[in-house]
Write a structure and sequence with these properties.
It is built from 3 helices and 6 strands, in the order ααββαββββ. The protein has about 130 residues and is of the alpha+beta class. A 6-stranded mixed β-sheet has the order 2-1-6-5-4-3.
C-alpha cells in the first residue's frame, strides 16, 4: 500500500459514512475483516457483519448520524507495507448548513489491508475536543 492508496481508501470511507450505502461500505472491507470501534472492544468480524453493524437502526456504536450533519477529514500519517496509521477529525453540526459545529472528535485509525486494498483490520481511537 502506498500513501495515495491509503488516502483513497480513507476518502471512500468518509463517502461510505456519508451515504450509508451498503455496497460502498462493503467495498471497503475484506471478507474476513475485523472492526473495532475502540481498541479494547471485541471486534465485529466479517464484512457482512461490519456492514450490518454500520446500518443497524440503533445501538451505541452503530447509531446512524443524521444526514448532512457531519463531516470528516482523515489523512494517512504513516504507511509501512500493508499497515497504516491515519489521523483526522470528525465534526458534528447542529444542522445540514454546517453553520454551528457542536463537537469535534480527533481520530486515530490503525489499519491493515489485504492484497486487494481492502481493510482487513480496523481499529478506531478517538477523543472529544474540549
Amino acid at each position: 500500500m502506498t500513501r495515495a492508496d491509503v488516502q483513497r481508501w480513507l476518502n471512500q470511507y468518509v463517502e461510505a459514512w456519508k451515504t450509508y450505502d451498503r455496497d460502498q461500505i462493503a467495498a471497503l472491507f475484506s471478507a474476513d475483516a475485523e472492526y473495532r470501534y475502540h481498541p479494547w472492544d471485541e471486534p465485529v468480524r466479517g464484512r457482512e457483519a461490519i456492514v450490518d453493524d454500520w446500518l443497524a437502526p440503533d445501538g451505541d456504536a452503530a447509531r446512524r448520524d443524521a444526514e448532512g450533519t457531519y463531516d470528516a477529514w482523515y489523512e494517512a500519517w504513516a504507511v509501512v507495507g500493508n499497515r497504516a496509521v491515519a489521523v483526522g477529525t470528525s465534526d458534528y453540526f447542529s444542522d445540514a448548513t454546517h453553520a454551528t459545529r457542536e463537537r469535534r472528535y480527533h481520530n486515530t485509525y490503525l489499519l491493515e489491508f489485504d492484497a486487494d486494498g481492502r481493510c482487513r483490520n480496523f481499529t478506531e481511537n478517538y477523543q472529544l475536543e474540549r
